[in-house]
Model the fold of this input.
Amino acid sequence: MILTTTVAIEGKRITEYKGIVTSEVIIGANFVKDIFASFRDFFGGRSNSYENVLKEAKSEALRELTQNAVMMGANAIVGIDLDYETLGQRGSMLMVTASGTAVKIED
Done:
């Protein structure tokens, strides 16, 4: 499965548009991560724990996006867009949404 943010794939021809495909993932950061992140905010530096949560959520959203495209009979997704938003009282939940166009391609 080819995944791309572009609307075309170099060297490939889109033969069929299957439709819009989407996925949504909401993942929480736990209390310990919140404490360490607050220290990072105060003292500066990167928050590896939050970066890992972000990577996990993005990977899961793309995995679900791929599964949904396969169910539609696609072998590629073009025009992928990823959006991120925090939810919850203190922004302790992260929502990642992914969308794109499921297509059938050939060489």
Summary: The beta strands are 2-3, 13-28, 76-87, 93-106. Residues 21 and 68 are 7 Å apart (CA to CA). Helices lie at 31-43, 48-71. The longest helix spans residues 48-71.
